[in-house]
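Researcher: Good morning. I'm working through a list of sequences from a screen, and I'd like to move beyond sequence-only analysis. For each chain I'm collecting a predicted structure so we can compare shapes side by side. This is the next one on the list. No need for commentary yet; just the structure.
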Amino acid sequence: MSDINENIESPFELKVSFSKLLKHYEELAKSEDEFTAAKARRVLKTADAHPVLRDGFSDPKILKEREKEISIILQDSFSPVLTKNEIKTASVPFHNLIFNSSERFKSIIETAGDDFELEIKNMPKDDKYIIACTIILAFCYGHSINFKRPFYYEIPDANGIMQFYKILYNADFTEIIPADNAPKITQEDVDELLDNFDNMELWKEKFPPNSYTFKGFVISNIFNVTDDQSISNIKTTLIGEDKRKDEGFMEDFQEIFRSLLGLKDIKVGFSIYNEEEDDFEKVYGVAMNSFLLNNLDSNKCSSALCSDSYQTLLKEKKFYAISDVEKYYKLSEGKAPQYKTLKDQNIKSAILAPIANEEGLMGILEIVSDQPKVLNSINANKLVDVMPFIVSAVERSKSEEENLIEAIIQQECTSIHPSVNWRFVKEARNFIKDQLNGKEPSFNKIAFENVYPLYGQIDIKGSSDARNSATQQDLTIQLNAIKSIIINALEIENLPIYEQFLYQINDYLEGLNSHFQVDSEQQISAFIRKDIDPLLGHLRRDGVLTDQVNAYFDSIDDKVDVLYKHRKNYDDTITLINKEMAALLDKKQLEAQAMYPHYFERFKTDGVEHNMYIGESITKEDSFNPIYLYNLRLWQLQVMCEMENAFYLMQSDFPVKLDVASMVLVFNQPLSISFRMDEKQFDVDGTYNARYEIVKKRVDKAYIKGTTERVTQKGKISIVYSQKQDEREYLRYIKFLQSKKYLDDDVEIVELQDLQAVTGLKALRVSVLYHKNEDDKLFYTYDDLMKEINA
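Model: Good morning. Structure tokens for this chain:
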């Protein structure tokens, strides 16, 4: 290299010069302190003999030729007394060219090895030009733009462990001199540059290459910040989610800990603590190891730790250091599991650090070495500063895992009731584990054996008739409005087509009045859309009957494109009933879950249906007793009475007056249910159990044997069953609820007509007692209540 500016594009022309430092010595030469003055004169005499040292130069050969003189000039800046302690260099900015350094710095570079090349880290190569421009703005124009970034050297020590050195520049002995052709920078230029950081051509326009002379040198004060940088690197590594998925993540992570602890041969592992199972589990991911678990996927904490280490890590949440595994293995006679596990892996010393927050232990950080005593209770304290970042990362990972589990459950299964969520979480964990281990993941079948079903519904009576009636009214109003417009149009313009439309409308009106059919609505809507709408559009464009046509279109609902008044009232009523009944049932369900956990789901149709399943396989506990089934049946019957009361208290607020009828289905035998992935819901398993689903779907339409009377009636609760023991059980519940004034005394037992593939069904029917309002202490039958309300 013949010139230090070679191969560098910069607004600076670099010149090494000691002019500014020598001016400082000129002042010292006038000092009254004779020793100081004499020393300054000696430095000036050395420099005067070689004017190039003051004038400046860019030929690096001069640095070598005048090495002795430069050393004399810089002697005060590089004190011989501190040279073996301070890490210091004199250099050219934006350049790895160092021409003077302390003995400590030379020793560090020598230890790094012959093949080591010193390079400033964190120096953005693409931004060097702009950094130089910001320096010019500050030095020459007084515009301080903070573009400072910390610069580092990464230098290995004698053991090959990377050490981090922060560089702080002293630019007191530098000058920046604009060339004659350097453009003058105005405030407008500065404002433009502030908004165009990435526009290199603009920066070069304002600061052309070599348009300023950088004259002088910088002194670099360098500090070993390995501990601080290691902590920062741990934080950065843990924050980067994508980095944690890279194959080199664990090796890089271990390298950081090696720098932090100053130990070359250490490894890092993790184990996750599962509080629910009180066990340690392997972290699944690229190159993740657990030295506590060795080859196991999971292990009970009591099997992985002795009582002392268990107390220290899980209860006290303190570090547990083992300086000599072999020694403590012999002292425990091989009975302490952690020593045996570590010894089996040829680990000689280890630090186990609890990863814990205020809510408790989340996992264990495991640092191990194949050398005894290198890891101990003293250097374990170095982890104090890094543990908060590890805790944060684990908290975030747990949150991400929970979100991922929920996402998989939602994707595979839809929303899951809390009582069975644990089973889906377990399968989702296995799904993730297989995925991370490179296996083909699959979501296994979710099934619960020997559970007792309960089914109930509060059904809106005559909902189909009510909707048909609303549809008839809307269509009649709409057709009459169209008929009126066409009659007026016929008077203005006597066209046979108008008469044909009137004939068609009258035919539809007669049909609506006498024999409304399911397809009537579709036929009339198609007629209006195909024939009438174009006609009305024609009349409006021609200015004929404009006001009347506009009034008609104003009556049409934009969303459904029909007259939607009575049907809207009906739909709003159904929505309100379903919303209120479902909300009440959900609220009551919280109380039932507190009594004993069970599966619950509800559906909104024309009314609200609910399924419940109770049994030991759902609760995952050895605590189920038939008493909880009987309790849930009684709870269900009582809640159905309360829902009936709540409905009639709200009935006056509904746009359309409708009635409801309630039914409970009793199934005496336990059955098996499984989650159907295609339908995203639970269903019964097996041919025999399918009988239960058939009865559920058909029983509310069943008739009493030998009659045309439906089993479900307004004002009554119907309890459908097939076994005599069920009859006796529910008669007890009815008697109890009669004593509490939920039910009337008119209990009847009826036989049902046979359903397809189902015979022998019976029903208990009993009237519900109602209150006229919440403060009313009197009880009414349905008929009495209607008389009171309508009075």
